[in-house]
Amino acid sequence: MELVTDNLTFKPENEYFLNQVSLEFQAGKLYTILGRTLSGKTSLLKTIAGLQPIDSGSITFEGKDFGSIQVWKRNVAMVYQQFINYPHLNVFDNIAFPLKQRKIKPPELVNKVSSAIRKVGLDGFEKRKIHELSGGQQQRVALARSLVKKAKILLLDEPLVNLDYKLREDLRDEFKNIFSSDFSTNSILIYSSTDPLEAMQLNGDIIVIDEGRILQSGIAKDVFENPSNIRVSEVTNDPAMNIFNGTIESNKIFLNENIRFDVPVHLKAIQAGSYHFGIRASDMFLDTKGFDFNVEIAEISGSETYLHLNQDELNVVLLLEEVKNFNDQDNIKINFNLKKLYVFDEKGDLLFSPFNMN
Amino acid sequence: MKSIYFTLKYFAITLWSMFVIAPFLWALSTSFKDFNSVTGGATYIPWLQFEPSLEGWKVLVRSPAKGGVDIIEPYFNSIFVTCTASLISIMLGTLAAYALSRFTFKAGIIKNNDITFFFISQRIMPPIVLSIPFFLMLGFLGLLDSLFGLILVYIVLLMPIAVWIMVDFFNKVPKEIDETALIDGCNPYQAFIKVVIPNSIPGLIVAVLFCIIFGWIDFFFAFILTFTEVQLLPVKIVALNSSVTPWWSLSASALVSVAPLVVVAFIVERYLSKGNLSGALK
Amino acid sequence: MAKIEFKNVGHSYDQTAKHPVYALKPFSLSWEDGGRYALLGPSGCGKTTMLNIISGLITPSEGNVFFNDQNITSVKTEQRNIAQVFQFPVIYNTMSVYDNLAFPLKCRKFSESHIRKKVNEVAEILNLSSVIDSGAKRLTADQKQLISLGRGLVREDVAAVLMDEPLTVIDPDLKFKLRRKLKEINSKYKTTLIYVTHDQNEAMTFAEKIIVMDSGQIVQRGSSKELFERPSTTFVAYFIGSPAMNIFNCSIANNELILGKFKLKIDKNPDQITSNDLKVGIRSEFIDLSDKPKENSIHVKIKSNEDFGNYKLLTCEFDNLEIKVKIKREQNVTSETTYLILSKNRLCLYEKEKLIN
């Protein structure tokens, strides 16, 4: 009951869409593929569905070679980020489509479709045409169509990214409930996203992909707490982790002439030298005894304020868990929660993490 | 202010309608005239200005032995050739257009767009250029002066139109819709029939319309590639002309030949405005 | 530049009807000179109607519009000195960047030297100096949008620059740059900027004052902090902030607020309250946890504990009601129940969906 990809590589032009992707997916688990736009998320999902060719590598599912099975005979379902439905059919017929394709007849057909419609909260919309629905409703139809056939592999390609922020927030909760209540233990669910918050909330395994290559995979919490290199730390944090080039000399950390501090306890073992230091935007705070910074711009996202700050050449982003007004060029004092400091080596690989590494 | 605009608008529309309809009305009144009424100066209203006669219409159905020109057979020949050629062109053209819209072809520097252009370039050439090759080819195959030969030639002429129109419409149907159909268990042919075609109906209607019109009005190839066995309507109508131009029967036959297109136009117009599916696709 | 004032302005598209259906219900509002405003609301809330009334594309069916105390209600768009930036950049592809920026001045027959000075100055501010002589066609989307904006800025007489979802077609990475630029321009030129958007985050980041609209009505004006902390209707409470504000039906008895089986103290005078349609709201950011009962605390069962990375979100339950609480990621919650402190100055009380002040 598992899906294995072995060294999948696809390089149509000069750029890698997939670069030696080797992964294992267990039935009954949820996987989030996390990566920036064009990092290869969609390519990977389409390859699993059988919609995209590969140059080399193989996919096996339940011990059988998947590559030789045509798309329409694979037991997969997929939801796209564009709201893809059949415009010529109404909501009911859209959701019934995969079942009719499998020659399922009423009353079983009607029962299954009705229960899927209820699950995604579209009761009363059965007779509507697709273009009479809002974006959120269209995406619910797509989800219902993918759930109704109980596929062994369910692929969701950034299903919420094209929705308004408030709707995204509502649907994220709803989708998560559907996954946990409806999801059988013998299917694999693969969800792709650019949003680390979404990946954390889904709370399955995270697979970090960048330029077609898998950078890290593991339990969400582990990947978040111990990013294996700087690139992972950027992708798994929103805003991206602040990275400073600094040095350690005689038990002090220097970020620039003004900012220096004692080496915190968890880094005691570190040698003198130059390193990349990383700290999350949420691990810095306003502090009247702290370092001087200028506000470049204060951005508000949901209930959070992202403060983009600078001091000479040093740029940092600080995250406040509330909405606050700042004027541009305001002078403020901030400090660092040193207990949460990461250290990466010159190549960008993780050396020390504030969390236990295992 | 608004009422002036309103009046002006309707005045302009009325003027234009008259301009368009006038030739038809004139043809209609002429078809009921005889030699004397036509040559005796311009008259328009039957019974008041001239005595109506059915002679112009009767000539069209009278056998040649009795001095008439029987257009009934050429009429059905034309309908048969146009419909068959259009149907085959649409079927082949739609498949070709789908392939051009969905798959990437590459042969040296030739890509999808070049192939599409190659199709339509058949229509850019003046027909006279094609006439001799077609004549020789049909002669070689023994298909000159036959309905089958004409249908083959018309397919060559009509299919590019179908391809050209349908490529554009298929490009507007997102590729992800076909992919979803595949994932939902359709093989590529089922995906095409069940999902892509129903979402391209307006395009299909436009393509059918154009094929029928271009097939129906062709005179040139019908004239060159047929002699005595098989005749199409446009050729037969021209054959009406003799030393004394029979304006009455020419008018009658013109009306008869326009009639099918008018019927098609009415049916299609209703379809296009009712099944406005193109708006459903973003 | 001018102060813009709306006096009892309302608009109905069907003016002949006996009981007009308002696209915009009558209201009064003044826009300070040099202010940075956002008109925020879901689609169909009337924000575009409002924008069109300012620009003069629509003459309001009621009330008057003043620019600097001059009634311009029926003055045409082209005579209003309003610059507009649309969703899609409007540029003249065949012209150079310079000519694009100079176009509004050339149309108004300014002297060559004045045009040159003004255009170069604006190009400088917009970081377009390096491309000023190249054709406008090959620029990136954000540069094109800057040109659309620049055409408004070269004119000294513009009363306001109106922007209708100007960042829709801009790349997410560039949005940040452009937003910063807009703020910079506002502080440098003191031009009134009015920004229409349905995106809460964009409005809150951009504007000094946000005007929230819903179904043809202004429901709140204020800074992003005010909108967040004291949303004036339950709609704003839901619309602003993520997660939305926790809101519950409640009642008042003996100067205390009754929320299910709990009694809470409030700092409102209950005499203000006249109806039974009462709701109470509190932001999940403003709720504290406690192991033992304290003043204004409620006892809840913890249903789920989600780790978002930057924070944790607890979903708790009491009396079949759900309440969400944002806590620090470091805070460990192991027990099955907990006390939540709903301090009285953080509670927002709503009567008929409107905040009681």
Structural write-up:
The complex is a heterotrimer of chains A (358), B (282) and C (357). Chain A has eight helices and 20 strands. In chain A, a hairpin with a 2-residue loop joins strand 11 (242-249) and strand 12. A six-stranded mixed beta sheet of chain A has the order 6-7-8-3-9-10, with helices on both faces. Chain A has two domains: 2-230, P-loop containing nucleotide triphosphate hydrolases (Rossmann fold, 3-Layer(aba) Sandwich), CATH 3.40.50; 242-352, Nucleic acid-binding proteins (OB fold (Dihydrolipoamide Acetyltransferase, E2P)), CATH 2.40.50.140. Chain A starts with a strand and ends in a 6-residue tail after the last strand. Chain A is globular and about 75 Å long. In chain A, 23% of the residues lie in helices and 35% in strands. With 282 residues, chain B is an all-alpha fold. Chain B has 13 helices and two strands; from the N terminus they run ααααββααααααααα. In chain B, strands 1-2 form a two-stranded antiparallel ribbon. Mean pLDDT of chain B is 86; it is low at 275-282. In chain C, strand 11 (246-253) and strand 12 form a beta hairpin. By secondary structure, chain C is an alpha+beta fold. Chain C is globular and about 75 Å long. Chain C has a six-stranded mixed beta sheet, with helices on both faces. Chain C has a six-stranded antiparallel beta sheet with strand order 13-12-11-14-20-21. Helix content of chain C is 24%, strand content 32%. Chains in contact: A-B, A-C.
Please write out the topology.
The complex is a heterotrimer of chains A (358), B (282) and C (357).
Chain A: E1 2-10, E2 18-26, E3 30-34, H1 41-49, E4 56-61, E5 64-65, E6 76-79, H2 91-101, H3 108-119, H4 135-148, E7 153-157, H5 165-182, E8 188-193, H6 196-202, E9 205-210, E10 213-219, H7 220-225, H8 230-235, E11 242-249, E12 252-254, E13 260-262, E14 273-279, E15 284-301, E16 304-311, E17 314-320, E18 331-336, E19 342-344, E20 350-352
Chain B: H1 2-31, H2 35-39, H3 55-61, H4 72-102, E1 106-107, E2 110-111, H5 112-124, H6 127-141, H7 147-172, H8 175-183, H9 188-196, H10 201-217, H11 220-225, H12 233-239, H13 247-274
Antiparallel strand pairs in B: 1-2
Chain C: E1 4-11, E2 24-31, E3 36-40, H1 47-55, E4 62-67, E5 70-71, E6 82-85, H2 97-107, H3 112-125, H4 141-153, E7 160-164, H5 172-189, E8 193-197, H6 200-206, E9 209-214, E10 217-222, H7 224-229, H8 234-239, E11 246-253, E12 256-259, E13 262-265, E14 278-282, E15 288-290, E16 297-307, E17 312-318, E18 321-327, E19 337-341, E20 348-351, E21 354-355
Parallel strand pairs in C: 3-8, 3-9, 6-7, 7-8
Antiparallel strand pairs in C: 1-2, 1-4, 4-5, 9-10, 11-12, 11-14, 12-13, 14-20, 15-19, 16-17, 16-19, 17-18, 20-21
Helix pairs in contact in C: 2-3, 2-4
